[in-house]
Amino acid sequence: MRRATAFAIIFGLALSLAAALAVLAHGGSGEAKIVVEPASVTAGDSVVLAGSGLEPDSDRVLLLAGGDLVVEFGTVKTDAEGMFSKELTIPSHLPSGNYELRAIGDETLTTPLAVTALAGGAGTSPAANDASETVLPRERTSFEFGAIFVFVALTSIVGALLVWRAERFRGPARA
What we know:
- The chain is of the alpha+beta class.
- Helices cover about 35% and strands about 30% of the residues.
- It has a 5-stranded mixed beta sheet with strand order 2-8-7-4-5. A 3-stranded antiparallel beta sheet has the order 1-3-6, with no helix packed on it.
- The longest helix is centred in the last third of the chain and has 27 residues.
- The two termini are about 15 Å apart.
- About 5% of the residues have low confidence.
């Protein structure tokens, strides 16, 4: 019984350590972000989407979203420093509106893009112009990651103590 209790305590501490390492690894890589140049474009033109502070050698799915439209641009792989740069041609059939470029990987990063329809092309999309529908991901601070780590560590320790107490006070084994 003591071996099981010791194992539970060691396992809980190992999980806490693993969580701490994950928090430190994520926090130390810099702020992940993407930017687009230019930020305003006419449908049919090209933009350059660049990302930095990302996980090195990881794949990102690139999308353009606005209103009810989603345009997929395929995937891009980050380099050893966690950066990428890709030229994207904005489809000529898009209506005018505010869109969002997204780089989806272990998290979703977004940046706005204003698109003007081609002359004589599609009209303005009211849904794409409604800025109140834009939802941006919430960025966590180092303090929040630290608080999460402390919570995981404390719950692991309390769980191990509860297992130890249950084993200790269970009484003699019955046949």
